[in-house]
Amino acid sequence: MSGIAVANLRSHRNGFTAVFITVFSAALLVCALGVLFESGIRGGATPHRLAGADVVVGGPQSLAVPEDLDQPYGERVRLPASAVGELAALPDVESAVGDINVLLSDDSGRVFDAHGWSSAALAPYRIVGGNAPTRADEVVTTDPRMLGEQVTLRHGGGGSSYTVVGLASTSSAEPIGRPTTIFMTDGRAQELWPHSGTVAAIGLIAREGVDPAALASQVGTQLRDLDVDTYTGAARADAEYVDIGAARGELAALSAAVAGVALMIAVFVVSSTLSSSIQQRRRDFALLRSMGATPRQVHRLIGAEVWVVSGMAALLGVAPGYALASVLRHQFAEAGILPPDFSLAMGPVPALVAVIAAVVTARMAAAISARRPARLDPVDALREAAVEAAALGRTRIVVGVLTGIGGLIASLLPAFVPGPAAIAGAGSSAILLIVAAALLGPVLVSGAMRAFSGRMTRSGSASAVLAAANLSAHRRRLASAIMPLALAIAFGSVQLFSQSTLLAAAEDQTERGTLADLVVTGPAGVDPQLAATIASMDSVSAANPITRSQALFTRDMADAPVTEVYSVQGIEPETAASTLDLDVREGDLGELAAGSVALSRDAAAAMSAGLGDTITVRLGDGAVVSATVIATYNRGFGFGDITLPGTQVREHTTAGLVDHVLVSAAPGRMDDARRAIEASGGVTALSSNEFAAAVDQEQRKQDSVTLVVLAVLLGFLGIAVVNTMVLMTTDRRREFALLQLVGASTRQVRAMMRRESLAAVAVAATIGTLVAYPPLAGIAIAVSGAPFPTVSVWTYAVLVGAATLLGFVAITGTARRVAHRDRDALGIGA
């Protein structure tokens, strides 16, 4: 059997090359996504400012979620300053230093990360020029270009003049993409730190000979009344940079979601390619069966061939998979999803998983594809080698219909059930509909081809008549070529236009809900005191400081509790009516105060909370807050799902600053208000339209991640399309030769194939669009109430055009090559 397998590999190079390329691409894709997922668990950055501390102590930066990944907090969890003295009393501690950090900016908008000078020992930083800061108006920099300068540094807009008196350096290079570190006196840093009586982290320097792990084990005993985490080695970066944990969680969630879709696509693509390859060799299997080969022997033969080809392809695909993961990391960092210094975890597990997944998928697909040629009796096998099987199996039809019905029901869920779960259900319904279309492909293609073949027959052209006959007679062959194209169009449309629909809804809600004339922003935020100063200006009628954060809500489910992340905004209730319109549907936003909360209707539905009910959430720093629902509103996409008093939200943010201030100018004095605000220094006053455009640009930058991932997946689908169509067209060499023997010219054969390919891509575009519409309509209903998704005509045209061009070139190019070769072999002229 092995000898026959080797002979088959040599004699059927085209088919096995297609299988090799497909499995290679699948292994590459799965490996890359596996690296990203593993990095969402073990990836991170290198400690820099805390690299000299043997142990770093901080508050728990994530919520433990049973049977799932821990949910990171978006804000710094702080510790009481008294813990520094308690840890310094440990016998194995040489010194304990509390660290705090404040973001400052200069007049050019450059952001600095400011710390007290005592924390310089945790790097350790040493003075290499000038001297340490001794006065409140002195700072030390890590940028040699600043030494000796007089600079104005602003905290949320309010500025002070400082003299750069020293240059500090440490043994490790400054991290890429992070704010420049500066040091000031401990007293001045405490004045700027918005959370008095607390520290961000505590660095412990052990006595000589003390093992950091042993010292870390003593911390919990010493601080038995506090919930703390200890960090040693590379994990110290998690305490230094809060965004590392959040980035890991987002990367793990993103890669897991994409990996699920990618694995489904890989199974479909590998199965389709193998099925086409085996179908191309149906005459060989018919001959084997007529010579006495048993079904088991046919299965063993196909299995041996697939083991060899898929094993080699998968092993060769993992190396470029790591390279692709690095490319994706760079793109994610450019979009702001990952910190610029985030490092991937390049372990062996993704390669192992990719090889196993690719090979097992190929082997299972081969076993399924081999069932029919293996089980037919010799006479039927010979007959089916010449004529395509007429009908689909009953099981396949039933499964396809039920899957399609399930997809349609899921896509319509938002019409009956509000909330993010309904939106997620509508989005995932695309997978069910795509699977249903793949199972029912020959049936769908058959109906469409009757229309095309009728029109072609009436044209009277010889090539049109031949094309019509082929379209009518070979439903399965056409379906194997059309469905990968339809899958690419459907998948691309759902991914692209679900994002555009959500973004358009958020933009519309923001535009309609912003009543203010101006929006005041700063490079690192706006100081609440400056916001109060703005509110007191003569040219300003109202000012509403807005603070953004997040909250975690845990709800009980049948299997286990589920924790969801919600966006939070903190507002000033007294000025909300004149600056903000959340489209309140129940209750009164003016009643918002400590102990109360307003929810978007989607959040209220997901939390099963109505007016008067009490909800419990964890704010950005993990603080547990219970609040009574006093209002529900519509515009959650534009302004956040949870609205709390601004003061309460700021208390639980790292910076303690306002994100932006909504300002309503006095009648006829908008220009005066803008000049007065910007004269205060350090902030920018934008019109509401200018601010909306800036937010839209930032959002589109983050959404570019979707485009990058989509490009990778569509590239994989493109390989499947080319493979399938090349195999299908190559399999018709006998047909082309016969047509030329009976008098058809090469030109007529090519014209026939052009007509067939145009019909195929037209049907693929139609099926792909029809499959994509229900989930997009469901998402549109969820966010706007109408089944009309936001679709860019040009983007859709590019997507369909690219798929059409790919299919057309693959079919006609292969047909041209095969027909030319057969013509030469037969000695037939053009």
UniProtKB/TrEMBL annotation:
It is a multi-pass membrane protein. The chain crosses the membrane at residues 16-37, 251-274, 306-325, 345-366, 397-417, 423-449, 478-497, 707-728, 757-781, 793-813. Its main location: membrane. Pfam families: FtsX (PF02687). Residues 257-377, 708-820 form the ABC3 transporter permease C-terminal domain. GO terms for cellular component: plasma membrane. It is found in: Cell membrane. Keywords: Cell membrane, Membrane, Transmembrane, Transmembrane helix. InterPro entries: ABC3_permease_C, Macrolide_Exporter_MacB. One of its GO terms (molecular function) is transmembrane transporter activity. Belongs to the ABC-4 integral membrane protein family. This is Putative ABC transport system permease protein. It comes from Williamsia limnetica.
